[in-house]
Amino acid sequence: MNKPIKRLEIIKYAIELEDDGIILSQLPLLKNEVTDPELAFIVHALEEKNYSEAMRAITAWLQNQRSVVSWQDPLVAASKLELKALEERLRELIDKRNARIQLLDEFNDLYLTRLGPLMSQILRLRKTLAEAAVRRQEAEARRREADYLRCQKYLSQAVEVLVTLTQRWQSMPPHSLQAAEARKHLQQQSELIASLLAEAQELERGLTREEEPARQARDEARQEYESYQEQQYDAEKRFSCEQKMSEDERHELKRLWRQASKLCHPDLVDNDLKNEAHSMMVQLNQARQRGDLSAIRAILTRLQKGLEPLMASDRLNDLQRLRQRITEVKQHITSLIEELATLEKEESWQLVSSLGDRETYFRQQEKALGEIRQTLEQQVSEAEYDEVA
Question: Where is the composition biased (Basic and acidic residues) (predicted)?
Fold first, then answer.
């Protein structure tokens, strides 16, 4: 009942101001809010421009209503209107972000469809090279281990010889020619042992060398290749779905998806509806992924009948909760503005937003990627030759 009261107060002041423009702007709205014969009489008098009768009826009706209608804090109405304006601003920003994400997704799908097979070959070759690098390192580790074991064997034999030579030297007369010759052999054997010890130390350092970086590079190359295969498959699936639709249907799907996205974003609805809004947003995105236009239409209809009139600005009447919600929405707006600013600086967005001739761009990319593939194929061939050798 508060809205008819406010409208009639506006109309009453407009009559006093002799401003029929305000009266005409409020009259259609008041007509939709008629709930009793007195209001119907006022509307009829205003339509007939019988302002004297209308003024008397308005004054009487307002006095009667004020005696039965509880007082409402005007700050509540002001806060609800402020929140409604902020929600609309947030809705516009969400739509702007969704439009850009949609454009990026479409370009990414086109990129994966056009260049995906070539890029997949490049990633497969990189994976092959990374696997070959690990095999080379493992083979080198086995070779070093074998060399270390041989060095240990030679060192053990050299020590045994040194013991034998020492015993022989100790059994000879100190100043004999045989003792001098034995000391010479002892010195040579000691030098050999020192050389073997130095070689063993160097081989030990090689055995303890960290091999994890090569394995990590191999695992990352495998993961990147497998992940790209999945992305390419999904993109081709979406492209296939789109090809089954007409151009008008594709435009309709994008338009309805954006319209529905503005209605079920969890940041827009009242807190009690966030889980439901999130669920509907998931359904909406899934329908978009599979190109299901009828499903998106159905979701939009449900949103328009359910969530749209249940925004916080329509549900809340507590001043404290309204002010709290206003603060939350302002924070969301600030966050979205920052997100959009960051997006504009990203290389992918700058490319998509500035790209004029896409066909020329893709031909250039095909040429560049083809050269990369050729280089990698040569590297793989050389790596396979080295393994055989």
Answer: 204-225
pLDDT at 127: 93
- Residue 72: predicted pLDDT: 61
User: Do 79 and 319 form a contact (C-beta atoms < 8 A)?
Assistant: yes
Q: Directed axis angle between helix 51-66 and helix 2-17, to 10°? A: 140
DSSP assignment letter at 318: -
Backbone angles phi, psi at 179, to 5 degrees: -65, -40
Q: Whole-angstrom Cα distance, residue 285 to residue 126?
A: 34
CA 231 → CA 94, 105, 125, 128, distances in Å? 26, 12, 18, 20
Place of tokens 């969530």: 307
Q: Give dist(CA 39, CA 43) in Å, integer.
A: 6
C-beta of residue 288 within 8 angstroms of C-beta of residue 102: no
- Its sign, for the CA torsion 86, 88, 92, 95, is positive
Q: What is the pLDDT of residue 309?
A: 47
Residue 158, C-beta contacts closer than 8 angstroms, at least 6 positions apart: 189, 192, 193, 196
Which residue from 276, 274, 272, 269 is spatially nearest to 312, judged by alpha carbons?
A: 269
Query: What distance in Å separates the CA atoms of residue 230 and residue 220, rounded to the nearest whole number?
Result: 15
How far apart, in whole angstroms, are the C-alpha atoms of residue 161 and residue 190?
A: 10
d(CA 32, CA 20): 19
Residue whose C-alpha is closest to residue 127's, from 221, 226, 215, 227: 221
Q: Number of helices and strands (H, E) in the chain?
A: 14, 0
Is the distance from CB of 102 to CB of 331 less than 8 angstroms?
A: no
Counting as low any pLDDT under 50, the low residues of the chain are 309
**Phi, psi for 269 (deg, rounded to 5):** -80, 165
DSSP conformation letters of 275-287: HHHHHHHHHHHHH
Tell me the residue length of the chain: 389
Beta bridge partners of 269: 311
Phi, psi at 267, each rounded to 5°: -75, -15
Six-digit token string for 12? 């009453």
Closest among 104, 109, 116, 120 to 348, alpha carbons compared: 104
Contacts of 362 (CB under 8 A, 6+ apart): 111, 114, 115
